[in-house]
């Protein structure tokens, strides 16, 4: 499923309160993220990295547990 379609289906499922469809679309997006680096995730979801290199390093240090 393409990202745009997944997000639209997610929004519709959320609005219509269809829990099983909401769970399925959340899992689809989670599978798209799984095993990717932050840079790959940014590219997949077209997310701009607006952190300076220093800010990014600080965030990585504060959240080191997530990278272990």
UniProtKB/TrEMBL annotation:
Listed pathway(s): Protein modification; protein ubiquitination
Highest rank taxon of the organism: Eukaryota
Classification via Gene3D superfamilies: Potassium Channel Kv1.1, Chain A
Pfam family, one: Skp1
Domain SKP1 component dimerisation span(s) in chain numbering: 19-66
Any one biological process term the GO annotation gives: ubiquitin-dependent protein catabolic process
InterPro entries found in the cross-reference section: SKP1 (IPR016897), SKP1-like_dim_sf (IPR036296), SKP1/BTB/POZ_sf (IPR011333), Skp1_comp_dimer (IPR016072)
Coiled coil: none
Protein known as: SKP1 component dimerisation domain-containing protein
Annotated source species: Trifolium subterraneum
